[in-house]
Amino acid sequence: MEHTQAEEYAIQQFTGMHYSGGTDVEAVCIGMGLGAEEWQNIKDDCSWLDLDEILAIERYIRQN
């Protein structure tokens, strides 16, 4: 699946946060304005995220 530029950017942001040991997943979501559709489009490409990170992203999506 080809991603939009915004979706590619989101993957890059999550990659950097994950590998730098970042702990504020919600701040990353807010900073990029991540929407539910974008998350569904990139979720499989972010399979290396920890379960806690995925749950935090999905909690953010549900609340916004």
What keyword list fits this structure?
64 residues; mainly alpha
Query: Residue ranges: pLDDT <50 for 5 or more in a row?
Result: none
- The residue fraction in helices comes out at 55-70%
Largest sheet: none
Total number of domains: 1
Strand content: under 5%
End-to-end separation in angstroms reads: 26 Å
Tell me, rounded to a whole number, the average pLDDT: 86
Q: What is the SS-derived class?
A: mainly alpha
Evaluate the radius of gyration.
10 Å
**Shape assignment:** globular
**SS element count, helices:** 4
What sequence of helices (H) and strands (E) makes up the elements? HHHH
Number of strands: 0
Assembly context of the chains: single chain
In short:
With 64 residues, the protein is mostly helical. It has helices at residues 5-19, 25-32, 36-42, 51-63.
Q: What does the model show?
A:
The structure is a single chain. By secondary structure, the protein is mainly alpha-helical. It has one domain (5-63). Helices cover 67% and strands 0% of the residues. It is built from four helices and no strands. It has helices at 5-19, 25-32, 36-42, 51-63. The longest helix has 15 residues, at 5-19. 14% of the residues are buried. The model has no long low-confidence stretch (mean pLDDT 86).
